[in-house]
Amino acid sequence: MTRTKTLSASLPALDHPDPQTLASEVLMALKYRVGKDTTVATPYDWLTASIKVVRDRIIDHWISATKETYEQQEKRVYYLSLEFLIGRLMRDAFSNLDIMDPMREALASLGVDLDEIATLEPDAALGNGGLGRLAACFMESMATVDVPAHGYGIRYANGMFRQEIQDGWQVELPETWLDHGNSWEFERRERSFEVGFGGSVESVTAKDGRLERHVWKPLEHVLAVAYDTPVVGWKAKRVNTLRLWSGMPVDPILLDKFNAGDHIGALAESNKADALSRVLYPADSHKAGQELRLRQEYFFSTASLQDIVQRHLSQYGELASLPDKAAIHLNDTHPAVAVPELMRLLMDVHGMDFSQAWDITKRTFAYTNHTLLPEALESWPVPLFERLLPRHMQIVYAINAEVLQEARSSNRFSGDQIAAISLIQENGDRRVRMGNLAFVGSHSINGVSALHTELMKQTVFADLHRLYPDRINNKTNGITPRRWLIQCNPGLTALARQAIGDRFLDDIEAIKELDRFAGDAAFRDKFAAVKRANKTRLANLVADRLGIRVDPSALFDIQIKRIHEYKRQLLNILEAVALYDQIRSHPEKDWTPRVKFFGGKAAPSYHNAKLIIKLANDVAKVVNGDPAVRGLLKVVFVPNYNVSAAEIMMPAADLSEQISTAGMEASGTGNMKFALNGALTIGTLDGANVEMKEHVGDDNIFIFGLKADEVAERRRGDYQPRAIIEALPELAQAISAISSGVFSPHDPDRYRDLMNGLYDSDWFMVAADFDAYAATQREVDAVWNDRADWNARAIRNVARMGWFSSDRTIRQYAKEIWNVPV
């Protein structure tokens, strides 16, 4: 049972400085912390000075909240994630401290435009997609609802990559986001922990011959050095810590080798350490990439656990109470190696026996599963795992024996089911299953939407669920409304405040009061004006960056997310090609002007995903340059999709594309961000779309296509995509045009294999859903042409999205998983 939390009066009150005071502080920071005066200051200098002024205010709240947590012996949450896609932080901090307007006025008095310098702040390259952005939303919401928390991850110097499009192809370049430093972070050299790899394990026996303990003697050693970034909640209720680890060598240079002329060898250890925090998700299509990725996962997991254990011991002096004072959350399988690592620390370093350590471990950890895709449920070859982490391999085997004995003794499982439960995959190459390891080592395993959670029970964790039927639970994802409404859509925020007051700023569910304005013609007109302004901003960005001119009065149809076949950007492109053919063939029809926007990155080694990016750009080149289309259809691929791009594109969207193959998207959060910003959704009954449909109502969302159980049934049966394609002339013509080189005249065979895949297997049910998707798009056209009806539906989407707040999600985690008062 959790207690209700009362805010302490010891936390500093939120001050509201006047513009003159802020201007004076900015000038002081510019002079004494940047070392410049106004005559030579660059825009980056003004950005740095502004951040320093605001950061100083945050620090007071940060120190007070940390002190209170210690004094009241509050339970802390530790959120381990390989990604934190936090984006730019300046506006976030200004808004949450409620000093955006006075800061804007202060800078203006100094001849500086806040909006201009804000665009100079780089997006922190700490994540890739939805998983990392969810972690960022969760960190902000934990601070907002007053949950004491640390986020733990890696301080990537280059992140995943910066995407450029050259001749339509994705090109991966380093994301050099730290070129100008990071004004938000604090280096904590005193919080450095040694990380080992390889080596051997020795057994220590007592005088009576009894095994006393094991000692791991690693062959390699690096340091994990902490960098802390404060994460401020709404109105600075609490400031939590995002602690990121950077790899450093124990010995920066081997001087004897350097002096002997072996300059490269002298820096070898430094290069190995540097690689650990250089790039997010190194390509794992080769053995070196796989090894580096496992090293990264262990590197940040052990550093985080050593930090947690040290903090707990310094306050409580023992570790038996760890589950009562620490909730460690595994965000997907990436930190799953933390399970045997905590066991190692408890047994080998602190002298516990296996049973006590295993009990503490299970009660301390919880695990969120984000995918049902086999390739995303990580597994590692046993030889690789054993070579890098020999002691952990022993512990994994010991845990496996415990779990399998429990399963066998129940007499409820067949041999095949026992094999599915095992932490070791035995068929083919022997591999360590990290999803199973995270499951058995946690007291709670949650899915991220109602559908996803039920599918977990039926598919990837069916047998583990039978063994531990009380562990799986659902926590539908959410988004922070501070970032995804208040900051990115100030026009809509101001309109809502004018209509219903300010209560929704503190409690987003109060935005439901906007519902009654859906029938108000005057309000609809104001809403449309806000949307038009947001679309004009996007149109200007596209014109400036890409030289493509789009009409803001057209329907803006947007699909922005990681490029993956299950997300079905290909379905969207095929429909665009079919629509292109129809517009040219039937010019007499009253076609709805539409701009199809795409954005997203493909994994460097994912051939088909990169080919889909090229196809989108090839189709855009042909369609946008064809005078027969008369501007009724345009296709735009926006390069280097990131948080800052999303903050511009989502408020501008009329239609949100959420068209993944049913049963394959765990939740999605882009769907929530679009709807909160007044876009209607076209989507399958997949992930959180199911719950969104329940909240916004059937009339305010466009649902099409196979359901998850129907997809599974077709895959089990005799699915014949060729027959479907041949029965649909529009689809067959679109596939033929792409396959024959209409959009790639200089390389006619470029897309032949991609299109043949639709005929031969079509695992992602593109052909099966095409007709329903195309028909629903024409339904979209019909509603769009009744603009009053469209805007009413869009307003209802905004009003009914309050439940999809990450504040609600975090309160559920706190009460039902972490046992932390809120």
Automatic annotation (TrEMBL):
Give the function comment from the record: Allosteric enzyme that catalyzes the rate-limiting step in glycogen catabolism, the phosphorolytic cleavage of glycogen to produce glucose-1-phosphate, and plays a central role in maintaining cellular and organismal glucose homeostasis. Phosphorylase is an important allosteric enzyme in carbohydrate metabolism. Enzymes from different sources differ in their regulatory mechanisms and in their natural substrates. However, all known phosphorylases share catalytic and structural properties.
Organism expressing this protein natively: Mesorhizobium hungaricum
Q: Known Pfam families for this protein? A: Phosphorylase (PF00343)
The reaction(s) annotated as catalysed by this protein in its Swiss-Prot or TrEMBL entry are:
[(1->4)-alpha-D-glucosyl](n) + phosphate = [(1->4)-alpha-D-glucosyl](n-1) + alpha-D-glucose 1-phosphate
Stated EC number for the protein is 2.4.1.1
InterPro entries in UniProt: Glycg_phsphrylas (IPR011833), Glyco_trans_35 (IPR000811), Pyridoxal_P_attach_site (IPR035090)
Q: Which cofactor does it need?
A: pyridoxal 5'-phosphate
User: What's the protein name?
Assistant: Alpha-1,4 glucan phosphorylase
